[in-house]
Design brief:
- Keywords: Cell shape.
- Involved in formation and maintenance of cell shape.
- This is Cell shape-determining protein MreC.
- Belongs to the MreC family.
- The chain is of the alpha+beta class and about 325 residues long.
- Helix content is about 35%, strand content about 25%.
- A hairpin with a 2-residue loop joins strand 7 (about 190-195) and strand 8.
- The mean pLDDT is about 80.
């Protein structure tokens, strides 16, 4: 529309008319004289509005979804963190229960052997330290730990202390090839020396080449002078194989250790040796043999067939 004097007068007239209709509608309330016109307009333009609304609502919802997605993501992340923390707490409880069980069993072993021990936790393994079988424990000189002390756990001999720092110590494990310990056979006086072979059974050389040894026999530590590096009576392992005696001065045994060296967690350092040799009292009870079930088969003679019976008659 061109900007002329007439168009300006028409615009002023339309605006004045609109204000007048609004005033009349407000004052009229429910009986407004323009209500009929409003309903007619709603009838005409209602479907158009709905269509436009239907087209615009998804866009609006998408905008809201984008706006709220950050909040949802934050809530989801918070829930994931809570679940992770809960799982860690549950796992920690399981691990603490396992450690408590290990500690209780180790204290029982120490009580049986009358060993004074200092409990410790394994905090590192020493595969990188010259490829030797060692562990690091969280006690050291400040806790009364000294070099050449015996280390055990709830199952038996773990090793001996080799290096001591103020707060930590290094333990050479009994399966290390450089490890050697004097042994004594259970319920006997057959002595020998056990050496580590890594992940293979310990190799034991008995001093008596004619000793009568069989699979399943058990060994304990013989002990050292002044109880260093080994106190007596600590369980070592069970004989798994005996080399045939070839008339040698010694006899070779292969012993499966009681301790699982790849599953060490709670250990004890013997800081006070027993007043007397506990001998075999620290060894666990031997498992009772499981009886082998016997099956008795009874054969019942079958009745002869009718034809066979008649033939015999």
């Amino acid at each position: 529309m061109r900007d002329t004097r007439e168009s300006r007068l028409l615009l002023v007239l339309l605006i004045t008319t609109a204000f007048a209709l609004i005033t009349v509608d407000i004052r009229g309330g429910e009986d407004s004289p323009v209500d009929g016109a409003r309903q007619a307009a709603a009838t005409v333009f209602g479907p158009i509005e709905n269509g436009v609304s239907g087209a615009v609502d998804p866009i609006g919802n998408a905008v809201v979804a984008v706006r709220d997605s950050g909040d949802r993501h934050d809530r989801l992340a918070a829930l994931e963190r809570e679940n992770t923390a809960l799982k860690a707490e549950l796992g920690s409880d399981d691990r603490n229960r396992s450690r408590t069980k290990q500690l209780d069993k180790m204290l029982k072993v120490a009580g049986q052997g009358q060993y004074g021990i200092k409990g410790a936790q394994v905090i590192a393994i020493g595969a990188a330290q010259g490829f030797s079988w060692t562990i690091t424990i969280d006690v050291g000189a400040n806790d009364g730990i000294e070099r050449d002390m015996t280390v055990l756990n709830s199952d038996g001999l773990v090793g001996r202390v080799t290096t001591v720092g103020p707060h930590t110590a290094t333990v050479l494990l009994a399966n290390d090839p450089d490890f050697t310990v004097g042994t004594r056979m259970e319920a006997g006086d057959e002595l020998g020396f056990a050496s580590g072979q890594g992940d293979r059974p310990l190799r034991v050389e008995l001093l008596n080449g004619k000793a009568e040894i069989k699979k399943g026999d058990r060994l304990v530590t013989f002990g050292s002078q002044a109880d260093k590096p080994f106190v007596p009576g600590v369980p070592v392992g069970t004989v798994s194989r005996v080399d045939p005696s070839g008339g040698d001065l010694t006899r070779t045994l292969y012993v499966t250790p009681f301790v699982s060296f790849t599953k060490l967690d709670i250990v004890g350092v013997v800081v006070q040796a027993p007043k007397k040799d506990p001998r075999d009292t620290v060894l666990p009870e031997k498992p009772k043999p499981t009886p082998t079930p016997t099956v008795t088969v009874t054969v019942t003679p079958s009745a002869p067939a009718d034809g066979q019976y008649q033939q015999e008659q």
